[in-house]
TrEMBL record:
Keywords: 4Fe-4S, DNA damage, DNA repair, Glycosidase, Hydrolase, Iron, Iron-sulfur, Metal-binding. The keyword Iron applies. Belongs to the uracil-DNA glycosylase (UDG) superfamily. Type 4 (UDGa) family. It comes from the Bacteria. This is Type-4 uracil-DNA glycosylase. Residues 42-202 form the Uracil-DNA glycosylase-like domain. InterPro entries: UDG_Type-4/5, Ura-DNA_glyco_family4, Uracil-DNA_glycosylase-like, Uracil-DNA_glycosylase-like_sf. It comes from Ralstonia mannitolilytica.
Length: 211
């Protein structure tokens, strides 16, 4: 596991070039997020999986580990996958944005929602993953992933919630981000959100099986 970069507000100097066509994530300077992230976090999982899950961006633990969904939200996602009858080994998991965006609060690096410009810049990598993996179904975990997948900054989770949306030749389903099922203020909302995520994953499994 890498050590986090020191929490300087500006990060190391360097060029940012939105038109760059980098060969590797480590070389990516398409937006500014590389400056303060420990490393880029690529998608991982089964190659050519029938189901692809797309989150928002790596969190603190993912930034250090270099792997997606390994922190608390990842643990909840693992449980939801198991409850939906899906093995994590059978899916491909990635994020709309590949670098951790954060702000310092005390000694903690707190998640900051990526801006549309950062999501747009990172579409370069998400498109590559979609092209390579050719999933039968893509599950957007939360609004940021949905906006990226539909290439629509105004897409609303409620409108696409657990519904099949066809976009750019792909089948997209949307549900809550796992963090919402962890952090919603009351137990009833958290339980409902968790059940909704399991229902969407079951729906994805049915669609992916072609039945
Ligand atoms: N939240 C995300 O959206 N992605 C991760 O990889 C971890 C937490």
């Amino acid at each position: 596991m890498k050590k986090p970069k020191p929490p300087s507000p500006a990060g190391p100097p360097g060029e940012t070039d939105p038109s760059q066509q980098p060969e590797s994530l480590d070389a990516c300077r398409r937006c500014d997020l590389w400056r303060r992230a420990t490393q880029a976090v690529p998608g991982e999982g089964k190659r050519r999986a029938r189901i692809m899950l797309v989150g928002e961006q790596p969190g603190d633990g993912e930034d250090l580990a270099g792997k997606p969904f390994v922190g608390p939200a990842g643990k909840l996602l693992d449980r939801a996958l198991a409850d939906a009858g899906i093995s994590r080994d059978d899916v491909f998991i990635t994020n709309a944005v590949k670098h951790f965006k954060w702000e310092l609060r005390g000694k903690r690096r707190l998640h900051k929602t990526p801006g549309q410009r950062e999501v747009q810049a990172c579409m370069y990598w998400l498109e590559r993953e979609l092209e390579q993996e050719q999933p039968a179904v893509v599950v957007a975990l939360g609004a940021t992933a949905l906006k990226a997948l539909l290439d629509d900054a105004h897409a609303r989770l409620q409108e696409h919630f657990n519904k099949v949306t066809r976009h750019a030749g792909r089948t997209v389903l949307a549900t809550w981000h796992p963090s919402y099922a962890l952090r919603a203020p009351d137990t009833a909302t958290r339980e409902r959100a968790y059940a909704d995520i399991v229902a969407a994953l079951k729906h994805a499994r049915t669609l992916a099986s072609g039945k």
